[in-house]
Amino acid sequence: MVVKPLLWLLTLLLLSTTALAQTGTLRGQVRAEGAAVPFASVGLKGTTHGTTADEHGGFVLKSVPAGDYQLAVTALGYKPAERRVTVKAGETAAYTVLLAPASTETAEVVISGTLGEVVKSESPVPVELYTPKFFQKNPAPCLFENLTMVNGVRPQLNCSVCNTGDIHINGLEGPYTMVLIDGMPIVSALSTVYGLSGIPNSMVERVEVVKGPASTLYGSEAVGGLINVITKNPEKAAPLSVDVFGTSFGELNVDAGAAARVGKATTLLTTNLFGYNQRRDVNHDGFTDVPLQQRATVFNKWSLRRPEDRVANLAARYYYEDRFGGQLGWRPEHRGGDSIYGESIYTSRYELLGQYQLPVKREKLLLSGSYNRHHQNSIYGTTSYIATQHVGFGQLTWLKPVSVQHQLLLGAAYRYTWYDDNTPATAARLGDRAANSPDVVRLPGLFVQDEWHLNIHSTLLTGLRLDHDPRHGLVPSGRINYKWGTDDGRRVLRLGAGNGFRVVNLFTEDHAALTGARQVVVAERLSPERSWNATVNYTHQFGPDARPLILDGSLFWTYFTNKILPDYDTDPNQIIYRNLRGYAVSRGLTLNADWTAAAGLKLIAGVTLLDVYRREPDNAARLRQVQTPGFSGTYAASYSLDRWGLSVDYTGQVTGPMHLPVQPNDYRPSRSPWYSLQNVQATKQLGKHLQAYGGVKNLLGFLPRYTLLRAFDPFDKYVAQDNPNGYTFDTEYNYAPLQGRRGFLGLRYSW
């Protein structure tokens, strides 16, 4: 009676001992130039085994199945490195990995283009990566202004008075660009108008840019591309950092951050303060050239490393802004009145986001979630626009290795959006009285991604997503990407095709069209907006690693259908939503060059050629998209004198002519001129931790010649008097910032 249970117990012990004997331990150290490299990312390619090196560069990977692997190591400031390692059952293998200093900013970090961490050169999806070090070549107080340095990405100002803005990628307008924070849709719809100004440099570790549809992984809105802001890791952040700069126009920006270890957790606290209170009017139209702004941002992130190197992150951010643009004599008591024109916007938002890696051995099961509330209280002349938006997001992803060369990514996501404003867009009728009817969108989705390392040179990536929207039903999207590269990574070819989608969004920036008692009408069963995209990308490195010339070129084509726009003109008592029957096309090419020309001399340049148009069924002519230049270019030249601790940066952008929104018989040109904005900066190292920097922005002092129309009659009280062309007050005519030449000076401390 007792013998049989004992035999079973002995068998189980033998089986468990055999299983343990099939695994081993891998330990080692990461070094560079004779010193340890702390906090490097270490992982075995094709598996979920990975960790972060400690402050002495040491790392340990336990319970690794016996076999041969490729060990990949990356760290900030160094080129990625790989080496072949062997793990034997029941033994501990020890290796030292040597890193070399990075030759370009884009080779510095591990990036994610597929919801899984990969080395940039290994990603089958072309992803551009930018670090704060790159943006410091021309310092700016927020992400929106920093992105002017990125080739093919155009931050566009849409109002000459309040400076609302959006971001165009490869010619597609702002609503089709998705802005993420740590991979979660924090910035969307209502918050894109002014919220992009509230992302300061103090919280940013790097910025990833994907051009082309990314809806397969990220869902609605990622039609034209996405910008993913990766926040700083508290484990790797400086214990104390401060960056303060001001301009001769009276702008003052303060970025400060502190990181500390609290028990088993690490925390990062950053804050940003920006103030500008000068009513400048260089063009003498009686209006502020640049809106007055007072804003504050506080960001706090906690990171807790659990057993088996599982990580839990929790972050929160609060943002507030008081913005005003208008006639010089405007005061707060004029808000909403019709005596002196002003556009006054109060913005308040808070965000919460977190990630937790669930305890699953040999696989990566990650739970992510976020919530944000955005409130905007704004007045445009006499028109008030008060809106609130809540966005909740949850996602579960499961990275399942099938073999060393093959892995699956499965995911489920749910996005909840609640939007309400004081316009007819969210109004309803109950009999004879008006009632409020907030817009609520529940968007669940499932997705799968299959990644095959076909051989040492080739990788194939396929993906499929299925979302459900109550107004559109089931919405599928998919993509396929192929990457080929040489052994040394000097030549990489990427081919990609896919589609993106965007569901209807009642939010609109056309506030003037929403005045009055209009009824919202959905004229038909709406189809989601669709884009189809094909991309060819090729990267080639010439020369030695110490002084490389890296060329990166892309050809892209995007076909866009089912655009959903509100119709205010058919019936003055209605807002009618329907799918437009026409289509739009965005096609072109981009070319980027990164050259370390000599010791201390680095050159970066990029050009983008665009052909963007749409066609309507009743019009055979191509209708060009406004505020979209056919040519644009960016450049940065940097020279360092290490002996003197001095560096000089010369940056700029060149923009070709673009079509502009004009009124009938408008005297202002319908196309903008060529123009260039150029900047120069010198940075001096003062000791080990302190830098002083200063320079000149807009070196040539370029200013648009025309902006506001009928600035003397902003309330259109006298349209019928001495106005044969019927002009009305207009703020949309804009193609360049209204800020002339200005100096800046700053201090940067990091300990």
Automatic annotation (TrEMBL):
Q: Where in the cell is it found?
A: Cell outer membrane
Occurrences of domain TonB-dependent receptor plug (ranges) = 120-225
Give the bilayer topology: Multi-pass membrane protein
Question: Mainly localized where?
Answer: membrane
Gene3D superfamilies per the UniProt record, alphabetical:
Carboxypeptidase-like, regulatory domain (2.60.40.1120), TonB-dependent receptor, beta-barrel domain (2.40.170.20), TonB-dependent receptor, plug domain (2.170.130.10)
- What processes in GO biological process is this protein linked to? siderophore transmembrane transport
Listed SUPFAM superfamilies = Porins, Starch-binding domain-like
InterPro entries in the record:
Beta-barrel_TonB_sf (IPR036942), Carb-bd-like_fold (IPR013784), Plug_dom (IPR012910), Plug_dom_sf (IPR037066), TonB-dep_rcpt-like (IPR039426)
Signal peptide (from-to): 1-21
One matching Pfam family is CarbopepD_reg_2
Q: Name one GO cellular component term.
A: cell outer membrane
Q: Which UniProt keywords apply?
A: Cell outer membrane, Membrane, Receptor, Signal, Transmembrane, Transmembrane beta strand, Transport
The entry assigns this protein to a family as follows:
Belongs to the TonB-dependent receptor family.
Q: What is this protein called?
A: TonB-dependent receptor
Q: Which organism is it from?
A: Hymenobacter gummosus
